[in-house]
Write a structure and sequence with these properties.
43% helix, alpha/beta, 16% strand, 13 strands, 330 residues, elongated, 14 helices, 3-stranded mixed beta sheet
Length: 330
């Protein structure tokens, strides 16, 4: 049986395939391409502490992680470094291995993926900070340095259209459990095949919340279709979503709170090849302010610009960094 993290890694890759627009095809070639932007320090990078450094940034191959990887590269560039862009690598493992081996110097990674998939723990840690601390401490032996995490949490959730929720007034997964007991036929749900059968997915959620959804009320489909079905049809009252997905706001969905903290935390944090960090400890001061500003809501907005509006993730990352005052155009 796959672990929660392993399943989620596959999920993230699939979502990337489903929602990435054609503009990404040229972004972050595997061989790497120099980041040529003319950017200068704003609130970060004053004094150009990375002058003379040659650094490589990487990412996985889905919109959010590409955006985050581009942010790191642009901040490094503004701070004086020459930057090689190796974002958009296929899957999680290739990017992870690039960091461990020093083929890449920095990326944004997710605490839940590291804790469960890379470090092999079956049970997530409920408290986000404690999970990050545990990952940080254990991953040191692998030559990976974790910088402080953001509150951006790309985890699983269930959502309902606001139109339908005007009738039910659902706010939490416990509310769904109560509705399922009171009116079982009302609770229809659209999920991916894998989520429908995993212990960290629907069966585990039902057990944790003491709910029982009739098998006939569970509909299985591809991730990209779920959002449309929940938003525009009456075939699914609820749907499996990912909390930072830009389509949540674009399709007017309400995300229901996981009030019993069943789903793992997947907080994004910069990870640095340790030898690189030892050489350039200034990296922490460059990326910490950026991470502090990254929230789940900010990620939804940025992801929507790529996945809904079709913008280039590099431009999305650059515009946001400039808007926030972290960097400036040269």
């Amino acid at each position: 049986m796959r672990t929660a993290g392993a399943s989620r890694t596959i999920r993230a890759g699939l979502v990337g395939v489903l929602v990435l627009t054609p503009v990404l095809a040229g972004c972050g070639l595997k061989s790497g391409s120099p980041m040529a932007d003319d950017v200068v320090p704003g609130s970060v990078g004053q004094g150009r502490p990375l002058d003379g450094a040659s650094l490589t940034v990487t990412s996985k191959n889905f919109s959010e992680n590409i955006i985050l990887g581009q942010m790191i590269g642009l901040v490094f560039k503004a701070a004086g470094a020459e930057v090689l862009d190796r974002t958009n690598l296929p899957g999680s493992i290739s990017a992870r291995e690039a960091i461990i081996k020093g083929d890449a110097d920095a990326m944004y990674e997710y605490t839940g993926t590291a804790w469960i998939t890379y470090l092999g723990h079956a049970k997530p840690i409920t408290d986000p900070l404690k999970q990050w601390e545990a990952v940080r401490d254990e991953d040191r032996k692998n030559g990976v340095t974790w910088l402080p995490q953001s509150t951006l949490n790309n985890t699983y959730a269930l959502a309902i259209s606001r139109k339908n929720n005007a009738k039910y007034h659902l706010r939490t997964l416990s509310d769904i459990a109560a509705l399922a007991k009171r009116n079982p036929s009302a609770v229809t749900i659209c999920v991916e095949n894998e989520f429908a059968s995993r212990d960290d997915g629907l069966p585990g959620m039902e057990k944790a919340y003491g709910m029982s959804i009739p098998p006939g009320n569970i509909k299985k489909m591809d991730a990209g279709i779920i959002y449309t079905q929940v938003s525009k049809s009456n075939s699914c009252l609820l749907g499996e979503v990912f909390t930072t997905d830009g389509r949540i706001k674009a399709m007017d969905l309400d995300v229901l709170a996981d009030d019993k903290h069943f789903f793992p935390n997947y907080n994004a944090a910069p990870v640095i090849h340790t030898a690189t960090f030892d050489k350039y400890p200034e990296i922490a001061g460059l990326l910490d302010p950026v991470s502090r500003r990254l929230t789940t809501e900010v990620a939804q907005e940025l992801n929507a610009k790529v996945d809904v509006d079709g913008q280039d993730p590099h431009i999305v990352a650059k515009d946001w960094l400039i808007q926030e005052g972290f960097i400036k155009n040269g």
